[in-house]
């Protein structure tokens, strides 16, 4: 349960799932992107509640390991574009 809370904070910058004006939960969008090499990592866009996942993972265990490393680091860069 703790990892779900951390994941939610990583994706939305909030510990809570919020409702939209229609009374539904805000959606979290997952996009599959082309990122490889040293730049390969899951990237969260908190304003739009979007997660970019690289398509270049060789296996689920490798993906899971890299995602958990990002979530456990608690050092998330906030870039403003």
General description of the model:
This protein has about 80 residues and is of the alpha+beta class. It has a single domain (about 1-15, about 30-75), classed as Hect, E3 ligase catalytic fold (2-Layer Sandwich). Helices cover about 30% and strands about 15% of the residues. It has helices at about 1-10, 60-75; strands spanning about 30-35, 45, 50-55. InterPro entries: Hect_E3_ubiquitin_ligase (IPR035983). One of its GO terms (molecular function) is ubiquitin-protein transferase activity.
User: Rg, please?
Assistant: 13 Å
Low-confidence stretches are none
Please write the CATH class name: Alpha Beta
**CATH-assigned fold name:** Hect, E3 ligase catalytic fold
Question: How many helices does DSSP assign?
Answer: 2
GO molecular function, one term: ubiquitin-protein transferase activity
InterPro entries: Hect_E3_ubiquitin_ligase
Helix/strand layout:
Elements: H1 2-12, E1 29-33, E2 43-45, E3 50-54, H2 60-73
Parallel strand pairs: 1-3
Antiparallel strand pairs: 2-3
